[in-house]
Write a structure and sequence with these properties.
Blueprint: E1 2-7, H1 12-22, E2 27-33, H2 42-45, H3 62-65, E3 71-74, H4 81-88, E4 93-96, H5 106-113, H6 120-125, E5 127-128, H7 131-138, E6 143-145, H8 149-163, E7 170-177, H9 192-195, E8 200-201, H10 209-221, E9 226-233, E10 240-247, H11 254-265, E11 271-273, E12 291-297, E13 302-309, H12 313-327
Parallel strand pairs: 1-2, 1-3, 3-4, 4-6, 5-6, 7-9, 11-12
Antiparallel strand pairs: 7-10, 8-9, 10-13, 12-13
Helix pairs in contact: 1-12, 8-10, 8-11
């Protein structure tokens, strides 16, 4: 059994980790922490757990708690993971769901997150946790930087096209997310009365996920990739749909472009490439660990790619468990949800 600790268990990603890990046949959840709700039984904090567990949420003490587990999931605010990692490293593996170890360029990280990075050597050791691309490195990692939700929805469909240099390195990505992507802390922007019946773009050209996307796409291409990324807030709880606009050589057909993506992900259990003429919808991925992809050529050189994920599952906690499976030699399909929450 893989002994698991979850730090930040009462956030949306923490609760999703608990949901997934509780059904995983190879996992034993040893502890779950919460700064705000320590000492409270999980079933009292979240009644969905009534009658299922007697687990009490604990105050984090990583010096001692890391000794009890094989891997620690960090579902913490940006900047906090840096304080936890040194105490965990001697005893357990780390899968960080925050942004502290995702971006290799520390100047870029500090610019976008407004934080001084305390562990530059750990950043260099961290493996970017996109299993379909970095599986071999994940197998031997000490620390895995779980990708952001928007980046997952954009990098997966674009990676094989840029790797094969079949598209131009100028890209437009238009992404829409449910409100859970903003985290659990209430703000005026995410208040029900502000989002219900509305739809808006936000942080245009300055979203924190942009440099993460750009760094990974440039690595795939082997040169600089420019991306115009515009996120939008949907009045729904969960899910991300990204519409991506790329340019290819006029001689490249729709079927050829589709085949490159389909061949790359043909054996990937959690990526579904739709037949030509079909496109993903959020309702077919919600609650699951799938990333769905569709493609269409709209004129001589322009292609539109559509992807859909659940931001809390493939975009966060599901992907983290997929990384854990790889890390401990477990079939990466095990314990992960393939059924969707429909209707």
């Amino acid at each position: 059994m893989i002994r698991v600790g979850i730090a930040g268990a009462t956030g949306y990603t923490g609760l999703e980790l608990l949901r997934i890990c509780s059904h995983h046949p190879e996992v034993e959840i040893i502890w779950a922490t919460s700064d705000s709700y320590s000492g409270i039984e999980l079933g009292n904090y979240c009644p969905a757990w009534q009658g299922r567990t007697c687990m009490v949420l604990e105050k984090p003490d990583m010096e001692e708690m890391a000794r009890e587990v094989d891997v620690v999931f960090l579902g913490l605010p940006h900047g906090v993971s840096m304080d936890y990692v040194p105490a965990i490293f001697p005893h357990a593996k780390v899968i960080d769901l925050g942004a502290d170890f995702r971006i290799q360029n520390l100047e870029t990280y500090e610019k976008y997150y407004g934080l001084h990075h305390k562990l530059p050597t750990v950043v260099r050791e961290a493996v970017y946790g996109l299993p379909e691309i970095y599986r071999q490195k994940i197998k031997t990692a000490q620390i895995i930087a779980n990708p952001g939700c928007y980046p997952t929805s954009i990098i997966i469909p674009l990676y094989p096209l840029l790797k094969n240099q079949i598209i131009q390195p100028e890209i437009i990505a238009d992404s829409k997310s449910g409100v859970t992507g903003a985290g659990k802390k209430p703000t005026e922007v995410t208040h029900f009365c502000e989002i219900d019946g509305s739809f808006k773009a936000y942080k245009i050209g300055e979203h924190r996920h942009q440099p993460e996307i750009q760094e990974q796409l440039s690595s795939a291409y082997g040169g600089s990739v420019e991306i115009v990324f515009t996120p939008h807030l949907l009045p729904i709880k969960r899910g991300i749909l990204s519409t991506i606009y790329v340019q290819g050589d006029p001689s490249v057909s729709e079927k050829e472009m589709w085949k490159i993506i389909e061949n790359f992900y043909h054996n990937e259990p959690w990526v579904r490439v739709y037949p030509l003429g079909q496109f993903p919808e959020l309702k077919w991925v919600l609650g699951s660990n799938f990333c769905d992809i569709g493609l269409k050529k709209v004129d001589k050189k322009h292609f539109v790619i559509v992807s859909a994920i659940d931001n809390l599952t493939k975009g966060a906690s599901g992907q983290a468990v997929q990384n854990m499976n790889i890390l401990f030699g477990v079939d990466e399909r095990v314990g992960l949800p393939s059924s969707v929450l429909y209707p």
